[in-house]
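Recap from last week: sequence in, structure out.
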Amino acid sequence: GVETPGELPVNVIAVGLFETEIFESTAYRALFDELESAREAQDRIVQTGGLLAPLLVVRSLSMALAGTDYAHHRHFAERAEDYRHDYVQMLNRDLIANARPGDQFDGVYTVGGEVWESIPAFSYQAPGLGWAIRHQVVALCMLAVWLVGLCVLTRWAVLKMEMVG
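Predicted structure tokens:
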């Protein structure tokens, strides 16, 4: 029953910003997950290459234990994106609650200190050792193959030396 957006009980621009953030974040996360899945598949191929070059396995495990592998990077990036999304939506909710219907903002909207103080600081907790190891199953399997192979070859060499000596 209104003829202009300014007659609505809420600010249309503020609601649009809120909804746009939801839509864009969902689309971004879907594309990000697709890209990350491809990257993880590549990482598994590299880890499988450890069957031919054990240094690849050692490098992969070392990076995971140090928290510098791609799984750790992705974990951090996801937590940072969650924080960014929540931060923006808190500001959008403030805009919805406090903007007058029909305000155009001209690209400027000012909030009080209480809004900024209500937004928690970004806090990141890195995953633990068990999480890191679970992301290295392929590398651990390749290392096990090398260790079993080493034991078999060592046993063979000892038997060969006993037969010669």
